[in-house]
């Protein structure tokens, strides 16, 4: 009996041992799996890899219209199909938020690898240490033979900080039939002619408008302002004679300034008020806009012209004052995927890609050699495009340029809603464009 009990106890002890060892082995196995997953996640964050494989992730932020962004997605997908180890995460930021979002991300050290930004932002981002210089990645045309005005916008302190993607010149478009009916055989080129066009055509109560510009587009107003000023200087907008000229142009119906007329004469575009439809029908004389918008809305009734001025007292050639609006790709100084970013960026700004973008969005490329290719070379406005770019101007390059544009837009909004007079608006605006102080 004692012998049987001893054997029973032995089997019981053996059973407990097996169960105990089994649980220990399972516990060790589970802990090993958890640790492996955590290491993989950490490696992915540090190396930019995909948890589901070894694919490298390139994060790109842009700010585009829906149609243009869809095209970029398509072009990027075509590129990654040829580079199966690469994943591109594209983010499309709202235009009104893009600057603030990108600046905040850079301040927090959480910026995307690649950013498409307005050329006027580049110097500020570079001065703050947010960008990686690009000189080592580019030689030849893209570095030295690009459009000079655009290249100068993205250079600072002796380095190239961005790669220009496109350019969109501001222009004047006009209805030739309406002009002919008023005995005008050319678009306005001096302050006297600008005032005459608005005086004759600006009758919103009859559904007729003169020279229109979108009240929410600061670049349209900044481009046009030099047209009324024979000196072409934005820092002299507070000149009393010039103030009177602006009042007469924007509200020609009355001798004294009346803000209510400004809102009637320059309503914002909406579903019920389409300036392009009015221009096409001859109900609007002309409009300050961009080449891309003109090409997207062009028809036989509308003609392109330079936004220019010509001193009344001289017979010299008219001077183009239309601004060149451009965007460029920049690499974050914190990116660990700079080589991958450069390769993707080169493809997205290649001549072949640029020509597809031109065909679908009408944004002109930043590479001069692209203008010798058939899609642009055969355009009826080809010579005008070349002249506009060669003779276009940009805002003074500085680390505060974007802040000045934003402040100008705020002043413009206050003028439009009646919070300040034209005199106050021009006096405040002129202070924004004084030369930046150098040194401490």
Please, could you describe this protein's structure?
With 440 residues, the chain is of the alpha+beta class. Helix 2 packs antiparallel against helix 15 and helix 8 packs parallel to helix 10. The strands form three sheets. Strands 1, 2, 3, 6, 7, 8, 9, 12 and 13 form a nine-stranded mixed sheet that branches. The longest helix is centred in the N-terminal third of the chain and has 46 residues, at 2-47. The chain is built from 19 helices and 13 strands.
Q: How many E strands?
A: 13
Q: In terms of quaternary structure, what is this?
A: single chain
- Globular, elongated, flat, extended or rod-shaped: what is the shape? globular
Name the helicity range: 40-55%
N→C terminal distance: 102 Å
Model regions low in confidence, pLDDT < 50 over at least 5 residues: 16-52
Radius of gyration: 30 Å
> What fraction of the residues are assigned to beta strands by DSSP?
5-15%
């Amino acid at each position: 009996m004692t012998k049987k009990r001893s054997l029973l106890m032995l089997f019981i002890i053996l059973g407990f041992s097996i169960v105990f060892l089994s649980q220990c082995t399972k516990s060790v196995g589970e802990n090993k799996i958890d640790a492996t997953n955590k290491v993989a996640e950490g490696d992915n964050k540090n190396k930019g890899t995909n948890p589901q494989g070894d694919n490298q992730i390139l994060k790109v932020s842009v700010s585009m219209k829906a149609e243009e962004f869809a095209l970029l997605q398509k072009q990027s997908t075509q590129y990654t199909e040829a580079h199966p180890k690469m994943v591109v995460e594209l983010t499309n930021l709202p235009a009104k938020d893009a600057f603030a979002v990108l600046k905040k991300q850079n301040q927090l050290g959480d910026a995307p690898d690649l950013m498409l930004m307005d050329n006027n932002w580049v110097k500020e981002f570079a001065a703050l240490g947010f960008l990686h210089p690009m000189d080592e990645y580019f030689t030849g045309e893209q570095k030295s033979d690009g459009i000079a005005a655009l290249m100068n916008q993205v250079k600072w302190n002796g380095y190239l900080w961005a790669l220009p993607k496109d350019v969109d010149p501001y222009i004047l478009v006009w209805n030739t039939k309406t002009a002919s009916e008023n005995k005008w055989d050319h678009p306005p080129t001096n302050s006297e002619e600008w005032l005459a066009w608005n005086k004759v055509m600006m009758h919103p109560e009859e559904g007729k408008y003169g020279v229109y510009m979108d009240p929410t587009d600061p670049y349209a107003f900044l481009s046009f302002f030099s047209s009324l000023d024979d000196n072409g200087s934005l820092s002299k907008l507070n000149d009393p004679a010039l103030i009177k000229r602006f009042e007469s142009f924007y509200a020609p119906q009355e001798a004294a300034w009346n803000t209510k007329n400004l809102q009637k004469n320059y309503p914002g575009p909406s579903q019920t008020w389409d300036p392009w439809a009015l221009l096409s029908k001859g109900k609007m004389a002309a409009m300050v806009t961009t080449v891309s918008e003109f090409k997207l809305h062009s028809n036989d009734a509308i003609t392109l012209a330079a936004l220019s001025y010509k001193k009344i007292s001289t017979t010299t050639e008219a001077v183009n004052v239309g601004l060149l609006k451009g965007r460029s790709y920049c690499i974050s100084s914190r990116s660990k995927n700079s080589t991958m970013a450069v390769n993707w960026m080169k493809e997205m700004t290649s001549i072949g890609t640029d020509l597809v973008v031109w065909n679908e969005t009408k944004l002109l490329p930043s590479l001069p050699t692209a203008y010798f290719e058939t899609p642009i070379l055969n355009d009826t406005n080809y010579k005008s495009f070349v002249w506009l770019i060669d003779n276009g101007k940009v805002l003074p390059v500085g680390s505060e340029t974007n802040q000045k544009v934003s402040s100008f837009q705020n002043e413009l909004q206050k003028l439009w809603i009646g919070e300040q007079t034209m005199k106050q608006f021009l006096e405040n605006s002129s202070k924004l464009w004084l030369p930046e102080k150098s040194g401490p």
